[in-house]
Amino acid sequence: MNSIDQILSEALVELSSDENSDRPPTGDVISRNGGGSASPDFGVVTPAFHHLASRRCNLLKIQVFGPGCPKCELLANNAMAAATELGMDFELEKVSDIDQILALGVIIPPALVIDGKVVTKGKAPSVSEIKKLLA
Asked: What is the DSSP letter of 18?
């Protein structure tokens, strides 16, 4: 597998080319590399850049579905802490669009989705509980 630094560099080159028409929707995506490369935290990145970079490696995709309430924020923070403590390369996306939340079948948010699979609904598990789900 390529290093995160190399993947990000390649994505930046592709993003700057005129040939790139594969643009993802807008929104904040927080990515963190816990794998120990020279860039341990590349922070909040633009959606287009993130989309290109994540296609080049096997990042764990963590999504928090909810309207942005305190419980949603707690879940997002706990999920980020759990993945970081486990040393995982991951992306964390917060989805607040009500249509997307309902399409997922979530009646009582927040919901935690890991690599496309809903693992919790209606609660904010602790960091240790999320670590068990990620292991």
From this structure: T
